[in-house]
Design goal:
Keywords: Signal. The chain has about 400 residues and is an all-alpha fold. It is built from 13 helices and 2 strands. The chain has one domain: A middle domain of Talin 1, CATH 1.20.1420.20. Strand 1 and strand 2 form a beta hairpin. The chain is globular, with a radius of gyration of 22 Å. It starts with 11 loop residues before the first helix and ends in an 8-residue tail after the last helix.
Length: about 400
């Protein structure tokens, strides 16, 4: 039978709408996969911590540290799923504030060197581990209730960076290519309050498992959030996606996590200052944005999720903008790879200044800002909604 004369090319608007929906669905699949991978690694961290606290020796201590570092690899690639009141950071900023809050005042948790830490020594809540009279038992609820008290964001008692401090201790050394925090495993054997320190480490790691699981569960197909996210119009979902990516790129990563550290020349402003893992944090956070732009995510088992990307959608509407965003995204990844390979972020920021964009860190900051602006423009082009990429 001959084709009807009425049959013609697909309506361009309909084709764009299809790709928008595919992009949103692919995004949801990538979000779930990356959170599931983070959950797998955090469970492995919990196992390593439990083994170490039960049998505290040098080998088990190192295994716990290695597990913490490994857990940061997938979690770092989830950071672009923020800033739009999704499951990770709702109206009250939870549970993100319980999972990844920083910087923290370590004096609230444990002993610190003289003259360091911002806690008022007259505050009965300081030095939780060594303050048995105020905290006779260390429970999940106790530690969660203290976190953020007095509306002070540095009063962090739980999450990745509390665990990091408990494993590495303070890094009071001058920036050096081979120095991290110098906590000894004997803090969990013969040191004062070693048993309480181990108990704190176990409780805070178990809490991390609980809080991350709450996010994973909401992104499952049967979860409370994902069906609602997919049911709303594609433009609303895309606007949310690009709010997260743009704000992470320009305001959070380029700003709070990189430029502030350069400006203050302070180790305390590093994202992972105790383990000196900030170089990887920078790379992984940038990768999380790159994954969205290109619609791909490589899982910890080596398999890859891929589908319709932001570039695919943008190409249909404004090919020039799509080409520009692709170029900027690749430039970002080139620059953060240099930071990652150089290691030890505190070393890299030494000698850099906030107004000189010719050095590696600030050069990456500049391109991340440009990427944030390009993502905001992509949002306006695709959905007609204005996005402020600053946090």
């Amino acid at each position: 039978m001959a084709c009807s004369d009425n049959e013609g090319p697909i309506n361009p608007t309909a084709a764009i709408d299809i790709k928008k929906k595919e992009f949103v669905e692919n995004y949801a699949s990538i979000v779930l996969a990356s959170y599931e991978d983070a959950m797998t690694k955090v469970n492995e961290l919990k196992t390593a911590v439990d083994i170490f606290v039960t049998t505290p020796n040098e080998n088990n201590f190192q295994a716990a540290k290695d597990a913490w570092l490994a857990s940061r690899e997938p979690y770092g690639q989830t950071e672009a799923y923020r800033f739009y009141d999704g499951p990770i950071d709702g109206a009250d900023g939870e549970p993100e504030g319980y999972i990844n809050a920083w910087p923290l005042d370590e004096a609230l948790i444990d002993y610190v060197s003289d003259g360091t830490g911002g806690q008022d020594l007259s505050d009965v809540r300081q030095n939780i581990i060594n303050n048995e009279s105020e905290y006779p038992t260390l429970t999940k609820n106790t530690l969660k209730d203290i976190s953020g008290y007095s509306d002070n964001e540095s009063n962090v008692t739980i999450g990745f960076h509390a665990i990091e401090f408990l494993l590495w201790g303070q890094d009071n050394t001058a920036p050096s290519a081979k120095m991290t925090g110098q906590r000894a495993f004997t803090d969990y054997t013969t040191a004062t309050n070693s048993i309480r320190r181990g108990a704190y480490l176990k409780v805070v790691t178990a809490l991390l498992v609980d809080d991350l699981k709450s996010v994973v569960d909401q992104w499952k197909p049967s979860g409370a959030y994902r069906p609602l996210f997919l049911a709303q119009t594609a433009d609303i979902s895309i606007n949310m996606i690009l709010i997260g990516a743009a704000k992470l790129s320009k305001g959070e990563l380029a700003g709070e996590r990189m430029a502030v550290a350069v400006e203050n020349q302070a180790q305390e402003d590093e994202h992972s200052c105790f383990s000196d893992n900030t170089n990887r944090d920078v790379f992984l956070n940038a990768q999380s944005i790159h994954n969205i732009i290109n619609g791909t995510y490589k899982r910890i088992d080596g398999t890859t999720i891929f589908g319709t990307s932001l570039i695919t959608v943008l190409q249909l509407i404004n090919a020039t903008e799509a080409t520009s965003l692709t170029t900027i995204s690749l430039e970002v990844m080139t620059k953060v790879t240099i930071i990652s390979n150089a290691q030890y972020f505190d070393n890299q920021i030494m000698g850099e200044t906030i107004d000189n964009f010719n050095n590696p860190v600030m050069s990456a900051v500049l391109t991340l800002r440009q990427q944030g602006d390009a993502l905001a423009q992509a949002g306006k082009t695709i959905t007609g909604t204005t996005i402020d990429p600053s946090v």
